[in-house]
Amino acid sequence: MFLYIDATAGGVMIQVLLGGVAGVSLVGRLIWGRIIRRPSGRDEGDLEDGVSVASEDESGI
Amino acid sequence: MDAASGSSTLTRDQGSFRDPGGAIYHLGNRVLRYLNRQGASDFNDLKESGLLESLLHRGSLVPTRELSVSEVPPVTDFEPALVLEHDRVPFVSYAYEWPFELLRSAALQYLDTMRVSLNFGFILKDATTFNTQFFGTRPSMIDVGSFERRVEGRPWAGYAQFCRMFLNPLLLQSKAGIPYQRWLRSSIDGITPAEVAQVLPLRRKLSRPVLTHVVLQAWLGRKLEGTPQAIKAASNEDFDIRTLRRLIDQLEHLIEGLARPGGASAWSDYEADCHYDARTISRKERFVDAALADWEPGTVWDLGANSGRYSVIAARRSDYVIAMDGDEIAVGAVTQRDHSFSDRILPLVMDLGNPSPDQGWGEAERSGLSARGPADAALALALIHHLSIAGHVPFGNVIEWLARHARHAVVEFVPLNDPMAQRLLAARFDDPSEYSLSAFEQALHSHFTVDDKEALPNTERILYAVSAR
């Protein structure tokens, strides 16, 4: 994992997007997962379509 | 990194505590970087890769020499494995003091350094403006600890910081016409994409680079902030170096195309409007030149420098000139002035009525203006009446401040009936009754001895060359 990371989600996501179609797809799934999660009020956890975010460590970044 | 006084005691730089690889110390006027084992290992890696030499050769990194631990005094807080000595920065400054041209120059140098680093398999792990200093108008990076081996597949961790600290302030000024200095002074971590997006006019947001690096970044941040799992998932993607190179090219192209907006300020046309004739200007220039020739100052502060006419004269008679003015447009004009002292005149935006304070953690990371003085000499030409009339600061206070910040000074008295003073008085409803030549000279004599005095022809202005008591 990172020894240093800028905690800004936007900064990482822009680079993901610039990576091409796969990146656009991932970002789309992450945002969709966030959208559908909000109405249910569930905590952030594993996202749909097998996009594994594995750890439940929310101390995160 | 702030210079110490002339003492020969080793003192730790109060702002040097974030680097896990070591710390900066000052030994008199020498700047020493003590590295622990990890820091030394990283530095040797940088050296052996050839990147260090390349950066030094390009002038991108402050001149740096290796010393043996036995050559320098020991430190007690850790066991140093290596010590580096850096050239001392003549006058430490910060992005919230830089005019547009200097920040732009620093941003382009940063991106160029990133590009070179990638060629050697390295990357800059952070992107803070505090790692750049200026020698005149030439930027130079000062933190060797910022370079690390790039791990294949990882994103550029410093991208968001680059946007906050370099790109967004430039966009704010270039695209929205808002000078960024006051904003950055309060927000030393930079300006966020969301903030810039809020103030940019719609038509300014519609270019692809601005849409990407500002609007989209702000939107994605809003949507996904507070979701560390999402960030981790994204970070596990394989980030190709070609994508990173394209990103750097994009940012560079964007910044190269940014220009300061046109237009004048209240004082940017001062040189043309100041009512001096050629004879008066010539006498004033000779007086300043003669005073400085007599004092032989190292550092000169040109206070209220406007577009730098007298800064250039001072540069001929000194080692280094800091050209300060609260008018950002005028300071920008200093960078465009045609002269041969670009490495010895540092133009800074500085409102003397509210100069840069001590800032950062413990109010000790970034030095205020006072802590970076005193100057050997100061020019206070057509300045004091601004502070006294417009700023409502009594003569005595201004002159006392001057005596604390400069060993010698050239000071200009401007009477109330002077056209420029009348311009300032137009904004006042009261009568500054304490403003008189006798009060001025009394205040001057309280703190200085007068070495020379001359009335300027065709005006009622008087110049004084003074030395602090």
Mean pLDDT of chain A: 59
- Largest sheet features of chain B: 7 strands, mixed
Which residue ranges of chain B are poorly predicted, with pLDDT under 50 across at least 5 consecutive positions?
A: 1-6
Distance between the termini of chain B: 31 Å
CA-atom Rg of chain A in angstroms: 12 Å
Q: Going across the biggest sheet of chain B, name each strand in turn.
A: 12-11-10-13-14-16-15
Uncertain regions spanning at least 5 consecutive residues of chain A? 1-5, 40-61
Question: Which pair of chains forms the biggest interface, and how many residues does each contribute?
Answer: A-B, 40 and 41 residues
Strand content of chain B: 15-25%
Counted by DSSP, the helix tally of chain A is: 2
Biggest sheet features of chain A: none
Structural class of chain B: alpha/beta
Shape of chain B: globular
| Shape annotation of chain A | flat
Distance between the termini of chain A: 10 Å
Per DSSP, the total helix count of chain B is: 18
The SS-based structural class of chain A is mainly alpha
Q: What do the pLDDT scores of chain B average to?
A: 91
Number of strands of chain B: 16
